[in-house]
Write a structure and sequence with these properties.
Protein name (chain A): Arginine ABC transporter ATP-binding protein
Low-confidence stretches of chain A: none
Helix content of chain A: 25-40%
Keywords (chain A): ATP-binding, Cell membrane, Membrane, Nucleotide-binding, Transport
Radius of gyration of chain B: 28 Å
Family (chain A): Belongs to the ABC transporter superfamily.
Subcellular location (chain A): Cell membrane
CATH architecture of chain B: Orthogonal Bundle
Order of helices and strands of chain A: EEEHEEEEHEHHHEHEHEEHH
Distance between the termini of chain B: 73 Å
Oligomer: heterodimer
Organism (chain A): Shinella yambaruensis
Radius of gyration of chain A: 18 Å
Number of helices of chain B: 11
Largest sheet of chain B: 2 strands, antiparallel
CATH topology of chain B: MetI-like fold
Strand order of the largest sheet of chain B: 1-2
Chain lengths: 261, 307
């Protein structure tokens, strides 16, 4: 369902990130088209999570540029000078990029429903009644309607993650970023979260997913990126990368993860 | 090895006899005797003058002193916590200036005894005869007050108690804020919240839950610390009792009146503290079912929506 014509929704150019002397990202270029699902795989420590966290400036990149709808993220032009954005300016851009974390990070002092309505009411000034109405639709979509009034501590990991997805969707983002959304889950709970993500992809949501779930990447992704050592080693259609890898590092990684599966 | 008797019952029909706790018995008897002796002194010692104690227990001066003690405790805690929250946020700020000012305040007010502070604040006029708002370093003054009019025993007492509390509260609240998972602020940030929104809606509500038990403890300490204000001749519970016995020389019974009232108040506060703590512990778990128990409401959490 990828659109090949037109500007990409999200564009990353020569992205670099260092922590002290350690260079985690060494020049990443990616383009994500509207409606595309991009999966990023690679060994741990390859920089894929850092890459995702740079997209919405949870980590400040050391170099390079990110564009959302052609507009630079985290910085702004004024004449021919480039200025850093303040936290609060940045928060306006972050609204357009939903993020789902490995550790869910639901607000523990709020019920599932309260988690979902919090940001729309607080940030977007949506009337409470409207926010609740929309939240219930979202919670139904992720199969959490019956548990709307439960606190996170009363929910299983899979239920928490599905509520967290609804919470992100409530801000009506242009793109959803998933940072290993099923890695903290018990094996039997992985499926329910992946099913929600599949449905989201079918509905045309633009998604960037860092994952270890090769099956999901193969079936759902329009574009697969293999990262190692802070660079993109190989990218393309999932079927090509998974079945006909061009690089030794890709082959070695696939041999390892597919042997486990 | 004891010899096996011929008709021993089955092991399944018997409950084994417990190991004797001889230490408990000996210690228990000694302590019980001491307790009886202590009670006997309390009851039979004529110097206790229980009749006088009863007479003054609900005396008007004593009750108004009790009110003053409660007022001081309440104001000092509210003011101390408010300053403490600001100090904690400054301490965690990225700005070196904010960090240092906060550190300096905490260092000073935790280091100087509240009694010394109160006397010092009360005598502030000796240092600064006039307090004014204006442009510093010799600029024009917009407003100015005579320090002696501004500083009363009451305001000096509040400052001494509240500033001391603010230093302790700041450290507790800072620890509380730091105990909130980083993921919480990241999740809030990705939802587009501003720094202030994150702090107010996500971080502080969680930090305060963590900090409530030590704050309860501090409130109990504060209640007792207020007795220091008697040096400023402020009529709190202790000073009211002192004023009576200065006149009647019934020192012991009036100190007993004060003691009993302090114990009553700390007992009430302890019960409240335990109830709040219990409530906080069970709240996350209780969630879906309506709140019940001692308090028919949920702390912090909003009432559930009927959808």
């Amino acid at each position: 369902m990828s659109q090949t014509n037109g500007e990409p929704l999200l564009k990353v150019e020569r992205l670099r990130k260092s922590f002290g002397a350690h260079e985690v990202l060494r020049g990443i270029d990616v383009a994500v088209m509207r409606g595309d699902v991009t999966c990023i795989v690679g060994p741990s420590g390859s920089g894929k999570s850092t890459f995702l966290r740079c997209l919405n400036y949870l980590e400040k990149p050391t170099g390079g540029a990110i564009f959302l709808h052609g507009e630079p993220v985290g910085v702004r032009w004024k004449g021919d000078k480039l200025y850093e954005m303040s936290f609060n300016e940045l928060s306006r851009q972050r609204q357009r990029m939903g993020m789902v974390f490995q550790g869910f990070h639901l607000f523990p002092h709020k019920t599932a429903l309260e988690n979902v309505i919090e940001a729309p009411i607080l940030v977007k000034r949506v009337p409470r009644a409207t926010a609740i109405e929309e939240a219930m639709v979202l919670l139904e979509r992720v199969g959490m309607k019956e548990r709307a009034h439960y606190y996170p501590a009363q929910l299983s990991g899979g239920q928490q993650q599905r509520a967290a997805i609804a919470r992100s969707l409530a801000m009506k983002p242009d793109v959803m970023l998933f940072d290993e959304p099923t890695s903290a889950l018990d094996p039997e709970l992985v499926g329910e979260v992946l099913a929600v993500m599949r449905k989201l992809a079918d509905d045309g949501m633009t998604m960037v997913v860092v994952t270890h779930e090769m099956g999901f990447a193969r079936d759902v992704a329009d574009h697969l990126i293999f990262m190692d050592g802070g660079v993109i080693v190989e990218q393309g259609r999932p079927v090509d990368v998974l079945t006909r890898p061009q690089h030794d590092r890709t082959r070695a990684f696939l041999a390892r993860v597919l042997a486990d599966a | 090895m004891s010899e096996e008797p011929p008709h021993r019952p089955s092991i399944h029909d018997l409950k084994p006899i417990a190991v004797p706790k001889i230490g408990h018995w000996i210690g228990g008897v000694v302590l019980a005797v001491l307790a009886v002796v202590f009670l006997q002194v309390l009851v039979t010692n004529k110097n206790m003058q229980w009749a006088v104690v009863a007479e003054y227990m609900f005396n008007r001066a004593i009750l108004s002193g009790l009110g003053m003690t409660l007022l001081l405790t309440f104001l000092a805690m509210v003011l101390g916590l408010a300053i403490g929250v600001v100090l904690a946020i400054m301490r965690l700020s990225a700005s070196r200036v904010f960090q240092s000012v906060s550190w300096g305040w905490i260092w000073f007010f935790r280091g100087v005894p509240p009694l010394v502070q109160m006397i010092f604040w009360y005598n502030l006029a000796l240092l600064l005869p006039e307090i004014s708002i204006g442009i510093p370093f010799g600029g024009p003054k917009l407003l100015s007050w005579n320090t002696n009019q501004l500083i009363t025993p009451f305001s000096a007492a509040i400052m001494g108690l509240a500033f001391t509390e603010s230093a302790y509260a700041a450290e507790m609240i800072r620890a509380g804020i730091q105990a909130v998972n980083v993921g919480q602020t990241e999740a809030a940030a990705t939802l587009g919240m501003t720094r202030a929104q994150m702090l107010r809606r996500i971080v502080l509500p969680q930090a305060l839950r963590i900090v409530i038990p030590p704050i309860g403890n501090d409130t109990i300490s504060m209640l007792k610390f207020t007795s220091l204000v008697s040096v400023l001749a402020l009529p709190d519970l202790l000073y009211s009792a002192q004023m009576v016995y200065a006149r009647t020389y019934q020192t012991v019974p009036l100190l007993l009146v004060a003691t009993i009232w302090y114990l009553v108040l700390t007992t009430i506060l302890t019960v409240v503290e335990h109830a709040v703590e219990h409530r906080l512990k069970s709240e996350h778990r209780a969630g879906a079912t309506k709140a019940g128990g001692i308090f028919p409401f949920r702390l912090f959490a909003r009432q559930q929506e009927a959808v």
